[in-house]
Amino acid sequence: MPALEQWPLRGGAPCLDFANTVAWRATERELDGMHHYHDLIHWSRHAGFISPAESERLLQRAAFDPTGTRETLVRAVTLRAAIHRLFVALAHDDLPAADDLAAINAALAEGMPRAKITPSGAGFAYAFADEGEHLALPLWKLADSAASLLVSGEWQRVRECPGHECGWLFLDRTRNGNRRWCDSADCGNRARVRAHYQRHHTAAAATAS
Ligand SMILES: [Zn+2]
After folding, report:
1. Given this model, what pLDDT does residue 105 score?
2. C-beta separation of 118 from 129 below 8 A
3. Cα–ligand 1 centroid distance for 59 (angstroms)
4. What's the pTM?
5. For residue 53, how far is its CA from the centre of ligand 1 (angstroms)?
6. How many separate domains does the chain show?
């Protein structure tokens, strides 16, 4: 897997991409790219929901607050687990656990008092006051991303990739709702190759017997 700065973004929403920063979850080769606060910031910038300027300010601030950065990373990992479980449940038509919704609500409630609307280009954008001043800024934005998916009803298009040991989450934005894989060139292709070999072996075994 690449470094988090080049990690694949296949989720279609920041909160789903965040859940996907664990690869091959719950398998022997599970890989978690999020070890330090700066991993969270570099990835958030790569995922496009914090700006280069915000990333600079947060990293500068982090350098003077080692305790705060450690705590924020722990909170980020907890939030990520909650987001992952909640959307896996919804993707399988199960009810989300109250604790997972509560974890998202806690991050949302912390950011909300600082939320503001600002002019942006020809329109307006949603932002948080004092961006770059609070280490938890990425968490607020990720909680907001999860909240938007839930409130907009788009959660009904969240799927869990059935690729071998994959389990990544993605938003199916196809008109017919027929996106099957997190990435058809990756998981989809591997599934086709596996199916091909299975057919081949079955045919070879039948010929040999
Ligand atoms: Zn996949």
Report:
1. 97
2. no
3. 32
4. 0.90
5. 32
6. 1
pLDDT, one tens digit per residue, over 105-144 is 999 999 999 999 989 889 998 888 776 689 999 999 999 9
* Cα-to-centroid distance, 27 and ligand 1 (Å): 14
Q: How far away, in angstroms, is 174 Cα from ligand 1 center?
A: 17
Containing structural domain, residue 91: 4-177
CATH of the domain at 36: 1.10.3300.10
Residue 58 belongs to a domain: yes
Given a cut of 90, whether residue 65 has pLDDT beyond it is: yes
Q: Find the 202 Cα to ligand 1 centroid distance in Å.
A: 26
Residues 6+ apart with CB under 8 A from 11: 17, 18, 19, 20, 168, 169, 170, 171, 182
- pLDDT of res. 200: 76
Whether residue 105 lies inside any domain: the answer is yes
186 Cα–ligand 1 center, Å:
7
Tokens of 98: 């109250």
The answer to whether residues 50 and 58 touch, using CB atoms and an 8 Å cutoff, is: yes
In a domain, 155, yes or no: yes
The rounded Å distance from CA 40 to ligand 1 centre is 22
Asked if residue 186 is part of any domain, the answer here is: no
pLDDT tens digit sequence for 140-194: 999 999 999 999 999 999 999 999 999 999 999 999 999 999 999 989 888 888 8
